[in-house]
Amino acid sequence: MSFKNEPLTDFSIAANRAAFQEALARLRSSLGRKIPLLIGSQQILPHQWMPRRNPSHPNELVGLIARAESIHTDQVLAQAESAFPAWRRVPLPERAAILQRAARRLRERRFELAAWEVMEVGKNWVEADADVAEAIDYLHYYADQMLQLQDQAPLAQVPGERNLYRREPLGPGVVISPWNFPLAILTGMTAAALITGNCVILKPAEQSSIVAFHLAQILRESGVPPGALQFLSGMGKEIGEALVRSEKIRWIAFTGSREVGLKILHTASELAPTQGFVKRVIAEMGGKNAILIDQDADLDEAVLGVAASAFGYSGQKCSACSRVIALRPILERFLDRLIQTTQSLPIGNGEDPSTVIGPLVDEAAKEKVLRFIEIGKSEGRLAFQGTLPAGLQGFFVPPAIFTDVKPENKIAREEIFGPVLAVMAADSFEEALEIANNVPYALTGGLYSRSPRHIEQAAEEFRVGNLYINRKITGAVVGRQPFGGLRLSGIGYKAGGPDYLLQFLQARTITENTTRHGF
Predict the structure, then answer these.
(1) Does the residue 485 lie in any domain?
(2) Is residue 329 part of a domain?
(3) Residue 117, Cβ density class (10 Å: 0-12 exposed, 13-18 middle, ≥19 buried)
(4) Which of 59, 249, 394, 478 makes a 20 to 30 Å CA pair with 458?
(5) What is the mean pLDDT of residues 329-336?
(6) Which of 205, 79, 190, 81 shows the shortest CA–CA distance to 143?
(7) Average pLDDT score over residue span 368-388
């Protein structure tokens, strides 16, 4: 396997800091522009537009995003259906070369794309750079994986018989991507579909459509035919549902909320009158993730790991820690140190290189988190709430830590998607595991412990898709920690892992009798 992960940028180097500042400055001259639809070979300017504002500075217009209508949905579906026969016949080495070229283009434009993330979704420098690096990883990894997959699955052969096993693309499909990892998750789902020979309609989250548009342009510039990759921005309830319902769509790759994911599953299961296939749905649907703190845990590591997992990108990660379950003997010591650490995390605009905790993505997200903080005050004890620096005007909510929380409380069971942490006590390791598992989600989880027995027990009984031991629970790396959940956190194989591409393929077996009986 030739794949190697893309290194993260070291911002302690002055030249890197200067280059990123320059990228942000250049970007300001591009703000406010219209972002069109990409349908076939045309750039379409519709009648309606969606303004996208900087979460750190809501008065600053980042861009005007095209709002697609039903006529545009019909057009992209027709283009994808028409383009599929030719795209599926493109030899695999050529498709792999296209993805490799796209990875090089992303690398060349790395700081520009990261700067767009800072402006559009409020990421800080480190988070934005890591997202671009992960996108580069996905392009290289899936190209490499598909080349390996082509050579697998040999069948038993006997004299007089030839057996073939072919993996083939499904057909046109739609990628519905989230805003919190605006480039990485979108690139991963799209690259997997393209390398397997499927046509893709990109339907990004409204909040991150500008970053998605740039990815679509890069993939096309790298050689993906216009009909094989199209960009359709707009409201999910208007065009997302229409795409999922269409009998021309063979598959849907989705990352987002449980509510939307389950609705997609239900809608996709309904058979249209002339639909001769069952749609395939790949869905990642969030988490309510817990970190267990054993009584012999290294508290230096545990405190830093929990703070990073809970408050990185203001808790706006499906993998974020929103529950801590600590053994009672060390709870108070852990909590005191966690509060002190959280107090030290700088809150500020995404453009500020010192920022650790930035804004929430929009006003609706801010209002939701504030509502949950009020719920938390009625359910537990507010042990800590940060204060915002003077002068911030964006969608900021400081971190909140609640204790005396019961496992059945809302803040301990419902996904909040913000910097809100519920801390609970357990009297035994077995009770901690029971509390951790007693939610409908099962995406990520963590354990800080020095006990080999408890580490082994957690590996067996802590039923989550990604379990991290003595480290933070965010930041899965392509090819090293394939990512995806169990139960209501999702369905399908893990992203960035060896099985993921199989979801975009269907297999055929061909058997030929090679014994000739005349002409």
Answers:
(1) no
(2) yes
(3) buried
(4) 478
(5) 97
(6) 190
(7) 97
Quick one: 241 and 326 in the same domain?
Answer: no
Q: Do 471 and 368 fall within a single domain?
A: yes
Q: What is the mean pLDDT of the chain?
A: 95
Cβ pair 129, 8 in contact under 8 A: yes
Q: What is the DSSP string of 232-272?
A: --S-IIIIIHHHHH-TT--EEEEES-HHHHHHHHHHHHSPP
Are residues 247 and 364 both part of a single domain?
no
152 pLDDT band (50/70/90 cuts)?
Answer: low
373 and 311 together in one domain = yes
Mean pLDDT of 110-135: 98
Nearest CA-CA partner of 230 in 207, 210, 200, 254: 200
The C-alpha atoms of residue 17 and residue 12 are separated, in whole angstroms, by: 7
Q: Give the whole-angstrom CA distance, residue 214 versus residue 229.
A: 13
How far apart are alpha carbons 121 and 334 in whole angstroms?
A: 32
Neighbour tally for 81: CB within 10 Å? 16
Q: Which residues are catalytic?
A: 284, 318
Beta bridge partner(s), residue 354: none
* Radius of gyration of the chain measured on its C-alpha atoms: 24
pLDDT tens digits, one per residue of 439-498: 999 999 999 999 999 999 999 999 999 999 999 999 999 999 999 999 999 998 999 999
Question: What is the identity of the amino acid at 194?
Answer: L
The number of distinct structural domains making up the chain is 2
Q: State the CB neighbour count (10 A cutoff) for residue 122.
A: 31
- The pTM for the full model equals 0.95
DSSP state of 410: G
Residues 265 and 370 placed together within one structural domain of the fold: no
The reported pLDDT for the residue numbered 151 is 66
Q: Is residue 23 part of a domain?
A: no
* 262 and 391 fall within a common domain: no
307 & 426 share domain: yes
Q: Over 90: is that where the pLDDT of 272 sits? A: no
Domain that holds residue 113: 35-149+168-285+491-506
User: Rounded distance, CA 471 to CA 270, Å?
Assistant: 43
Element of type H or E holding 62: strand 57-66
Whichever domain contains 182, its CATH number is 3.40.605.10
Task: Please check whether residue 126 lies inside any domain of the structure.
Answer: yes
Are 315 and 461 contained in the same domain? yes
* Sequence-distant (≥ 6) Cβ neighbours of residue 280 within 8 angstroms: 170, 250, 251, 252, 503
Cβ–Cβ contacts within 10 Å for residue 251, how many? 23
Domain with 466 in it: what CATH number? 3.40.309.10
| pLDDT tens track for 49-62 | 999 999 999 999 99
Does the CA dihedral 168-174-176-177 come out positive or negative? positive
Q: How far is CA 388 from CA 261, 348, 392, 398, in A?
A: 34, 8, 7, 6
**pLDDT tens, residue by residue, 396-454:** 999 999 999 999 999 999 999 999 999 999 999 999 999 999 999 999 999 999 999 99
The full length of the chain comes to 519
